[in-house]
């Protein structure tokens, strides 16, 4: 769905697919310009290479002021503490988030 078709009152959470996900080619960077300050952009990080890519991409993207960026470790691929350490060491202006649904229900599709 195009972001222009979403009611502006809705808080959108938009994924930026990292190379480690195997889905990087599905990113629609042109849509990010439609984000509003109350929206969120999420990167799910698989490894150090994904982290470096995401850090560079964060610097290259023109996100609206106030837009929250989330960095999440890919469940079972990257230890949460390791990603948290990298974020803190680099003092990145992002929020750390775990994939809570994975901790609650594992890799069960639809949950």
Give the DSSP E fraction (strand runs of 2 or more residues): 15-25%
Low-confidence regions: none
User: Which whole number gives the mean pLDDT?
Assistant: 93
Series of secondary-structure elements, N-terminal to C-terminal: EEHEHEH
Helix content: 25-40%
> Which value, in Å, is the CA radius of gyration?
14 Å
* Main sheet properties: 4 strands, parallel
End-to-end CA span: 21 Å
The total count of strands amounts to 4
Structural class given helices, strands, pairing? alpha/beta
Describe this structure in words.
This protein is of the alpha/beta class. The protein is built from three helices and four strands. Helix 1 links the parallel strand 2 and strand 3. It is globular and about 35 Å long. The model has no long low-confidence stretch (mean pLDDT 93).
Topology:
Blueprint: E1 13-16, E2 40-45, H1 48-60, E3 68-73, H2 80-90, E4 95-96, H3 100-105
Parallel strand pairs: 1-2, 2-3, 3-4
Brief account:
The protein is α/β, with parallel strands linked by helices and about 110 residues long. It has 3 helices and 4 strands, in the order ββαβαβα.
Tags for this model:
16% strand; 111 residues; four-stranded parallel β-sheet
